[in-house]
Inverse folding.
C-alpha cells in the first residue's frame, strides 16, 4: 500500500512538472508519436503485401506445378527461360497419365482486343483446357465452362473474367452473346467468379478463357504451348509429381543424360515460400528504417530532460534539504521520461493505425490491403516505453547525484 501511494505521488508530481510547459511536452512527445506511427504503418504495409502474396498462391493451390519452355544456346548465347518453345499438346496429354498427377491444363496466352457491339476492351485471351477451373481452383459465377468435346473440336466458345464482363456488358447478361476476339466470333458460355486484385500483381479477373486448341488455330496460329498447369494428387505428392514430369519430358524430348533440360518445372509452393520470405525481409527493412525515428525521439527526450534538470536545480536542492533521497529524485525524473514516451506511444499507435487505414486511398498502395497486427502495435508500444527508460535514465541519474548545498546556491 505504501509503495502504491509513493508511486501515485511520483506520477502526480511528474504530470504537474510536464504540464507546466505544454507545448514543450507535446513537441518532445512528437518524435515518439511519429516513430511509433511510422513503425506501425510500415509493418502494416509489409504484412499486407505478405497476405496478398499468400492469398494469391493459396488460390492457385499448394499442389500446383507449372511446366514452362526452357532456354536454348545459340552461338554460345542462351536465350533464357521461355526463349525456346518446346512444349506441345502431346506433352500435355502424356502428363495426364502420370500416377502423381491429378489434372492437366495446357495454356496459350495472347493479349487481344475484344469487341462487343460498340464497346471494346484489351485483355488477356487465355487458351486453356476443360480442366482449368479444377487446376486453378476457380469457380464459375454463372453459366458453364467449356467441356472436353469443345476443346477437341476447337470450338469458338469462351468464358469471361469478371472485369471483362463488367467492361463489355455492364449490367447486361452476357450468356449466349457473341463477342469478337481478333475479329473471330466467340459464344459466351459463362462468367468466372471474381478473385479481385492481387497485391500489386494486377487484376486476376481481366482475362478470357477459350479452348487452347482454338487459341492455337484461330488466335496465335502456333503449334506450341506457352506453358502447362499441372495439379498433383495432393500437396504431399507435389515433389513426386515434379520428378515424374521431369523424367517423362526428358524422355519425350530425347534429352541425353547430363544435357540441360529444354523445359522448366516450377513448384508453386516453393515460389510462394520464397515470396513470403521476401516480404518478411521487406517488413523487417521497413520496420527498421521507421524505428530510427524512435531513436531520434528518444534523443529528444534526453535533451529535454537534461534541460529540465538544469532549470530545476534549485527545486531539487530544496527537496533534498527537506529529506528527499537521491533515489526519490531519480524516480521522479525517470517517471517524467516514461510518461513522455508512453503518452507519445499511445498517440503514435492512433496515428499509425489511422495512416494504415488511409494508405489504401493512395494510388501506389491501393492494391495492398494493409494489415495492422496486435503484435506490431505491442512491439512499437514496448519499444517506445524502453526508449523512455533508456534515454531518461541518464538525466534522472544526473539529477539524483546533485549536491544539495550546490543546488541551493545555483542561480
Amino acid at each position: 500500500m505504501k509503495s502504491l501511494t509513493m508511486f501515485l505521488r511520483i506520477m502526480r508530481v511528474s504530470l504537474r512538472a510536464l504540464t507546466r510547459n505544454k507545448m514543450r511536452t507535446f513537441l518532445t512527445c512528437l518524435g515518439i508519436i511519429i516513430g511509433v506511427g511510422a513503425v506501425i504503418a510500415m509493418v502494416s504495409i509489409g504484412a499486407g503485401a505478405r497476405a496478398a502474396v499468400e492469398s494469391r498462391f493459396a488460390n492457385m493451390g499448394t499442389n500446383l506445378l507449372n511446366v514452362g519452355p526452357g532456354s536454348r544456346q545459340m552461338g554460345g548465347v542462351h536465350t533464357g527461360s521461355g526463349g525456346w518453345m518446346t512444349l506441345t499438346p502431346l506433352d500435355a496429354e502424356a502428363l495426364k497419365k502420370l500416377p502423381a498427377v491429378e489434372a492437366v491444363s495446357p495454356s496459350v496466352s495472347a493479349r487481344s482486343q475484344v469487341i462487343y457491339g460498340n464497346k471494346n476492351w484489351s485483355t488477356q485471351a487465355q487458351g486453356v483446357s476443360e480442366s482449368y477451373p479444377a487446376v486453378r481452383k476457380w469457380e464459375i459465377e454463372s453459366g458453364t465452362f467449356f467441356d472436353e468435346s469443345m476443346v477437341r473440336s476447337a470450338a469458338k466458345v469462351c468464358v469471361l473474367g469478371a472485369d471483362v464482363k463488367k467492361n463489355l456488358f455492364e449490367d447486361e447478361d452476357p450468356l449466349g452473346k457473341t463477342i469478337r476476339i481478333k475479329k473471330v466470333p466467340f459464344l459466351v458460355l459463362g462468367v468466372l467468379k471474381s478473385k479481385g486484385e492481387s497485391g500489386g500483381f494486377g487484376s486476376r479477373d481481366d482475362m478470357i478463357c477459350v479452348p487452347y486448341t482454338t487459341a492455337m488455330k484461330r488466335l496465335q496460329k502456333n503449334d506450341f504451348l506457352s506453358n502447362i498447369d499441372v495439379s498433383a494428387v495432393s500437396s504431399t505428392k507435389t515433389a513426386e509429381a515434379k520428378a515424374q514430369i521431369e523424367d517423362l519430358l526428358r524422355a519425350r524430348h530425347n534429352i541425353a543424360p547430363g544435357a540441360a533440360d529444354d523445359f522448366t518445372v516450377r513448384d508453386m509452393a516453393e515460389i510462394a515460400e520464397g515470396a513470403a520470405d521476401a516480404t518478411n525481409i521487406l517488413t523487417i527493412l521497413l520496420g527498421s528504417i521507421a524505428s530510427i525515428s524512435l531513436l531520434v525521439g528518444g534523443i529528444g527526450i534526453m535533451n529535454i530532460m537534461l534541460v529540465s534538470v538544469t532549470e530545476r536545480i534549485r527545486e531539487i536542492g530544496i527537496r533534498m534539504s527537506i529529506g528527499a533521497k537521491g533515489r526519490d529524485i531519480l524516480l521522479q525524473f525517470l517517471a517524467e521520461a516514461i510518461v513522455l514516451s508512453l503518452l507519445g506511444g499511445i498517440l503514435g499507435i492512433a496515428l499509425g493505425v489511422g495512416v494504415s487505414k488511409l494508405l489504401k486511398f493512395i494510388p501506389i498502395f491501393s492494391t495492398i490491403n494493409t494489415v495492422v497486427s496486435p503484435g506490431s502495435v505491442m512491439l512499437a508500444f514496448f519499444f517506445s516505453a524502453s526508449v523512455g527508460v533508456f534515454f531518461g535514465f541518464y538525466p534522472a541519474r544526473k539529477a539524483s547525484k546533485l549536491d544539495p548545498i550546490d543546488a541551493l546556491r545555483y542561480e
